[in-house]
Design goal:
Organism: Periophthalmus magnuspinnatus
Domain Ig-like: 197-283
Family: Belongs to the MHC class I family.
Number of domains: 2
Distance between the termini: 53 Å
GO biological process, one term: immune response
GO cellular component, one term: extracellular space
CATH topology of the largest domain: Murine Class I Major Histocompatibility Complex, H2-DB, Chain A, domain 1
Length: 375
Amino acid sequence: EPWCVGLLRQLMSIIHTLRIFETSSSQVPNFPEYVVVGVLNDLEILRCDGETRRNKPKQEWMNRVTEDDPLFWIWTTQLCVNYLQRSKGNIENIKQLLNQTEGAHIWQWMFGCDWDDETDDITGYVQCAFDGEDFISLDPSTESWVAAKSEAVFTKMRWERSGQIQRYKHYIHKVCNVGLKNFVRYGEKTLRRTELPLVSLLQKSSSSPVTCHATGFYPDRARLFWTKDGDELLEDVDPGEILPNEDATFQTSVTLDLSSVPSKDWDRYHCVFQVSGDKKKYSANPEVLYPMCQMIDGPNDSPPPCPPQTPPKPKFLPVSCLRSQPSQHGLIGILLQPDDIPYFRRLPPGFGATLTMEGENMVYSDSVSPTSPGI
């Protein structure tokens, strides 16, 4: 077939993932002794724990599972109860094996699979960890268990004698080949959606690095990076991880050190957001962006309020006001309501933005520019 057709198929194919996380704990305060969570494409879809002893859907569309399997929630609840009893023995056995019978401990088991919806290829995997360190995993290609440490060799030999590999091969076929595909079908509207982020530029002081923060995007197949004169920068940048938000979207950030760059050259630098798989073209420019609020130093000053107008849709725009707020993921920029006035150091003068297409990628570009309007 023509190379361009093959390339198009590669761009349009999506890898769907299903992961079942089972966690057992011993003497860990304020943490359940047993919990199982099912995650589809980084979205929690089901949950069962030792307190409720019931498997429950975490997404409304997961109730459709009974269309294909009317007893799904019954038999998976029974599995949860059975695994709860087994997990207590597992964590005690591993504590004895490692001679760590005292203190708090956590045993984690993860079963999962990846499905390419274009080629229909499915890859399954099983991994186990104790106290956050790899312990043993399944290699499907060789149909053998791989011990991550010497203490796991005994477990490897015992599991291989007991036929655990055939059991997991059955799981991969049934859960992945049937369950994963059905789950994707139920949640297709949610899973195939594209949400573009709110992007903000954040600087603690005039000499601090500039952080570009993007939040609220979906899916997580995205990149955020800095460019100079259109070329991606690899030096003086500090990229962050892609982290989940509570609303099933994602956030990320990338920091650039501009301390040695004259302010007159700042318009050569852009923060670029890319997400694959959307063919629509979007653009935004300074004339349609929400203007920045005036930001000044000191809690005794009163900056003017944020403008009351509603930003045009789609909302490909920088955050109107920024506040310095500590969080578990560090310092981030947040969107404030018009009556929620921030006290923060003024950002450098102005920025513009565009959101266009580069091949199959949407590209959001947010640039600092001494000449662009907005402040």
